[in-house]
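FORM 12-B: Structure-to-Sequence Request
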């Protein structure tokens, strides 16, 4: 099941709006919250077409309400929710891009509307599709638009468990805005989308053994960036051990890479060795995590026998199915 952290993060971003007065605005907010609540409880891939149709009908109703009210902020919120369903959950990236571009064209004549969120979501969609040139084009369009605000912003967190920030500025300058920074992180992630070769880097495990990622070619590899205490990782440990026990003899390998800062790691009474994680365990790989756009949040990559990314952030039965399928079992 797909990790929905991105969906929840974007939901927070699109919810920062002025209070809408009147019955229509209140009704829209109630429908929006109901749709968002349902999306938070859903993954992708194991629902019937009827269930997906119900969700999409609810989203389309949101979009119709927003258009009828001629509320630019509501139009953007509805479009971004629909893009989440199409791209994040159904992998229909081209359709999601069209929804976002149509919304951008609709709100552009509204001088009081800041359409930055539509640029951000389109960059995220193109990153998920592995289309780095398209992400760069969106960045250029945003910087040339009236919506670009170069004021610097403050950020904190992302240093360990309990610290919820999931965005770290890819490069620090005084001319970057928050939307631009998110898009630049998306540009980095586009280089590790499905079908892209995983970086062939040298790593050192917790026992001091060096290995190169390319030395694992010929095997199906799960690369897991984690930190102790992160719930999604703790919840997945039993399943990952089961996958290792069942499929390691048939060509399945794991590489677990710790994302904790040295200060956070030092606060743990026991070392990584005590976890007895299967496969290779790496205490730190900051350059690799930076190159992949992994900042302050768990990320996994499933690689094929040639070292190419099959998928990112699979969990549960989605991960088990993908591993079995890649191994031909």
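FORM 12-B RESPONSE
SEQUENCE OUT:
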């Amino acid at each position: 099941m797909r990790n929905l952290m991105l969906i929840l993060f974007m939901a927070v971003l699109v919810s920062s709006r002025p209070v809408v007065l009147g019955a229509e605005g209140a009704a829209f907010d109630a429908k929006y919250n109901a749709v968002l609540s349902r999306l938070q409880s859903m993954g992708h891939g194991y629902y019937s077409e009827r269930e997906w149709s119900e969700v999409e009908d609810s989203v389309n109703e949101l979009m119709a309400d927003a258009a009828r009210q001629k509320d630019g902020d509501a139009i953007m919120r509805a479009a971004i929710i629909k893009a989440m369903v199409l791209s994040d959950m159904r992998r229909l990236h081209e359709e999601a891009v069209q929804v976002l571009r149509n919304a951008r064209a609709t709100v552009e004549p509204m001088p009081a509307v800041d359409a930055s969120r539509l640029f951000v979501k389109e960059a995220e969609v193109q990153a998920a599709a592995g289309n780095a040139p398209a992400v760069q084009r969106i960045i250029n369009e945003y910087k040339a638009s009236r919506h670009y605000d170069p004021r610097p912003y403050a950020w904190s967190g992302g240093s360990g468990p309990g610290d919820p920030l999931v965005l770290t500025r890819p490069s620090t300058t005084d001319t970057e805005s928050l939307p631009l920074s998110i898009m630049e992180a998306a540009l980095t992630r586009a280089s590790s989308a499905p079908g892209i070769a995983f970086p062939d880097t040298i790593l050192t495990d917790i026992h001091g053994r060096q290995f190169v990622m390319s030395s694992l070619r010929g095997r199906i590899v799960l690369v897991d960036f984690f930190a102790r205490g992160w719930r999604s990782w703790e919840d997945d440990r039993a399943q990952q051990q089961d996958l290792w026990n069942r499929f390691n003899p048939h060509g399945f390998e794991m590489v677990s890479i710790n994302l904790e800062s040295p200060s956070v790691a030092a606060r743990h009474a026991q070392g990584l060795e005590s976890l007895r994680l299967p496969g290779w365990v790496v205490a730190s790989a900051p350059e690799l995590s930076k190159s992949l756009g992994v900042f302050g949040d768990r990320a996994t990559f499933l690689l094929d026998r040639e070292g190419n990314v099959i998928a990112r952030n699979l969990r549960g039965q989605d991960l088990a199915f993908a591993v079995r399928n890649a191994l031909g079992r």
